Amino acid sequence: MRNKFSLVNKTVAFLMTLAMFSPIFSIGVNAQSMTKPKSKGLTEDQKILHVLNRLAFGARPGDVEKVKAIGLNKFIEQQLNPNSLDDSATDAKLRNFDVLKFSNDELFSKYPAPAALLQLVAQNNGMKKRELQAEVKEAKQEKKDAKMEKQNGKMENQDGAMTANPNRPQQPQGNSEDAMYQAQIQEMYVKYNLGRPQTISQQLNASRILRAAYSEKQLNEVMVDFWSNHFNVFANKQSVRWFLPEYDRDVIRPNALGNFKDLLMATAKSPAMLYYLDNFQSVAEQKPQDMEQQKKRLQQLKNNPQALERFKQNQNLTDEQAQERLKQMEQRMNQAQNNRRGINENYAREIMELHTLGVDSGYTQKDIQEVARAFTGWTITDPRGYRNAANVTGRDDQMRDRQERQLGLPANTPSGKFVFIDQIHDKGDKMIFGNKVNEGGINDGLKVIDMLAKHPSTAKFIARKLAVKFVNDNPSDALVGRVADAFTKSDGDIKTTLRALFTDSEFYAPENYRAKIKTPFEVVISGIRTIGADTNGMAVQQMLAKMGEQLYNWQAPTGYPDTAEDWVNTGALLERMNFAVALASNRIPGTKADLAKLGTASGDKAKILDSYLSVMLHGEVSEATKATLLKQLEQPLMEPSMGNNNAMAMENVAMQRPNAQQGGQQQRGQNQQARLLPPSGNPEVFKVVGLILGSPEFQRQ
Question: Is 499 helix (H, G, I), strand (E, B) or coil?
């Protein structure tokens, strides 16, 4: 029966999607042809709506009137210079999000990586981590096999239920040693009041949602979203997750409306970017003659007591420390011979192709190699936070001392911190774009950043991306040229560049009004703003993931796309309708809206629809869409679902008291999926609102 209902529900939802969204599939159709405005130009109200849809994440109830009262130009200037705006209400919503305040070092300590704890468990059991990993892997496979055997040992009764087969022997329940290791890890979480790493992503993502939905500094939030995709990093690549709060707080936000060169510099030094694109591992190639010299030096120290004594005195080492140092030198030398790890070109390629010049801008493979050489030595201290876990659990921190001695760092250098290590930097001449670069040390990379930021191709590349973001998916070359000129003349000032874009005649051209399709993030945030919903930002993340734009989860360095062709397909639009219905019917946990405040809930369905269309779409809806909406009001409303996205497991944490929920028994709720609530409110009203939120006109901006 359930499968039959599910099939019927999916069929209804599919047909509803086709009926509702058919105009969306014609990408060239814009709202001007859909709403048939009487004038060729935009009215004053339309200009305000256009600005609120592009410079902000949509209009809240009353926003059009507020902008009209202060004047459109003044509103734009306020958004370009947001420091004077009071955002204390939004700040209050974030006060319990502790990860936003922590350094990378603190995050490694409070939310240690599972691999770090696994290493400690291995040491506690007299094993090496790889040995324990092999045992845990084997135990997991045993559990999986036992589960399959148990399933195969069941038979179906007449009602379709699974019952145990009495003729099948019972299988062992997993590996006892694995259970012991897991118990030791769990004991660490409880004893040292540790938090789970996924909390980092959940709080950061929730903060992005809350700021976008409620901040008065809307343009700044739009640009945070823009730059976060332009300088994309992938949260699920090993340690990147621990570096993201700092990336958002100290790299993207302070520079979102600042100078492009400063932003480029900040991303280049960011541990998140260094780790994501592997530049933290990029070191100067070791020449054969250098290797030979190292071998001779090591042999001399081993065989010549006088040389060893001088070495000890110069380094201020005890006999034991000197022997340990010789052992480390031999290990590093052998490792270098075996791994041959040297220059990594990933960051050099992406900083030119995606961050500055753009593809086909004239740089060569040789330029990539030379830029990569310039960025050798840009690295991260303790990039996986292993020594922090050792500190928190009270183990001797030999790793910290060893790393600091090897790299020549000051004592007690924090984990997860950008550092430049001159001894692994390529000190030779680099030829980049036909120019010799050898500024010395870190200045080689700084020189490259300066060259890239000032390159004419960078101005055009950034100008085109901004025009796509704020004007239309295929901006004219003339518009791009004018914006690029503003970028160049202002030496990369982002505010000046945006001002040139917002004052250009093409920005307000009628054909660009509601011409862009919203991304899933824009759909979610504009939906919350339009109906005045209150959310804690947590379960909304799961809906966003279902729609295809889980924050910081785009694996490729390109970042999430911003054009209609990337988002318009039946499956994606069905998920948008799913979200619209769930939001309108108050079914998303932690999110609530009083729809009665928006429109008239009395009268026939047509009257209710007109009332909410006036408030939510300001009456701008085509006759075809209105007719479809009225028809759909007579049909059953689709049953929304939260889905089963394992990558977005929601932690059962009371956000009001995060510090009290980190370890112990409260952690048992971790990895539980958020479930939709029963619908609440007036069914006639939330049906109308859900359909409007899912309409083609609302999907456009």
Answer: helix
Spatial distance between the Cα atoms of 426 and 326, rounded to a whole number of angstroms: 24
End-to-end CA distance of the chain: 41
**pLDDT band at 529; cut points 50, 70, 90:** very high
Q: How many Å apart are CA 373 and CA 279, to the nearest integer?
A: 10
Q: Name 45's Cβ contacts closer than 8 Å, sequence gap at least 6.
A: 64, 68, 618
Residue 638's nearest CA partner among 577, 568, 681 is 577
pLDDT per residue over 264-286, tens digit each?
A: 999 999 999 999 999 999 999 86
* pLDDT score, position 16: 59
Residue 513 · residue 43 · CB < 8 Å? no
DSSP strand pairing (430-432 vs 435-437): antiparallel
| Cβ-based neighbours of 215, under 8 Å, separated by 6 or more | 87, 90, 221
For the chain, the farthest-separated pair of C-alpha atoms sits apart, in whole angstroms, at 100
Contact predicate 522/551, CB 8 Å: no
Reported confidence tier of residue 639, pLDDT bands at 50, 70, 90: confident
The count of C-alpha atoms lying within 13 angstroms of the C-alpha of 637, restricted to the half-sphere facing its C-beta, is: 25
Check: CB of residue 577 under 8 Å from CB of residue 694. yes
CB 452 within 8 A of CB 458: yes
Cα 225 to the center of its chain, rounded Å:
9
Which helix (H) or strand (E) segment holds residue 436: the answer is: strand 435-437
435 forms bridges with which residues in the sheet?
Answer: 432
Is 37's pLDDT higher than 90? no
